[in-house]
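Support reply, case 0932

Customer input (verbatim):
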Amino acid sequence: MRLEQLEGFVATARCGSISAAARTLGLSRPAVSAAVNALEQELGAPLLIKRNQGVQLTPLGYRVLEKATTALELIEDMRKLTGADTKSSVSVCSTPLLSLHLTRNIFLPFRKVHPDVEVFIRNTYLTEIVKQLETRVSSMAVTLTALGLNITERAGDLGCEIVPLYTDERKLFMSAKHPLADRDYLVAEDLADLRIAFYSSDQEQVSQLYLPYFAGCYRVANRTDMLDLAARNEAVFIHPAMQCRHDFRVTKGDVVEKRLELPGISHKVPVVAIRLPDLSRGEQMFWDYLLANFRRKL
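Our regenerated output:
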């Protein structure tokens, strides 16, 4: 078992994909993939499951990640004893749409100010957020809190600090050419002949709230596919509005957003930052930067 295998696996687990891990480590994608594959072969079992939106840890992967992280921390401590140069690291988990905002407006500017701190941003399903913190795969999270998953309550039981960042609102996105596009808001009767697009992942939660109002659905791999369907006037989709407004199809006006009025459904989406207690110096620096700058460019 070699050091580069552990580093490649830990970076992939934290970043959520081999490509992102390769960028973080400054290596080629094949090199990181080979390191992870070699570790899996040596252990005789898969550690990661490849999905459309990145990778997911297997149950064994979670256990190995904990051990590998401890091993790398021990190596870092030994390097410090000899005065060797070493970098602090921060692991943040977030949902895919929020991670785009984090990367562009928090992660990249932070790295310019603090090049000695490595930041890993891991794309994570809502249902896995608390597990990431509980297993210490990530030391902090930026996440939605709705959908009855009790994320803040469960994080509070871990002793986490929870800070509200802003409140988004789910809206319906549709083609500007659709006959309903000139309405200020849509009601249940307006949705009966429409088809809704949502993620094909089993972790998808939002569709369960809205699907009964629609005539049918498309299951898609990513947000790009959703926007393409909407732009072609083949389907609509529902998403937190602020997280979609920067897409070029929305800014061009090809896709427009509409407020929804549906009985018994709250469209408010609180977004919070969560952190474990006892952060390292680098983690505390990133946390402070995150809180001070997150709302910029929303």
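We compared this against your earlier run and they match. Two observations from our side: The first strand starts at residue 48 and ends at 51. The longest helix spans residues 59-81. Please reopen the case if you see a mismatch on your end.
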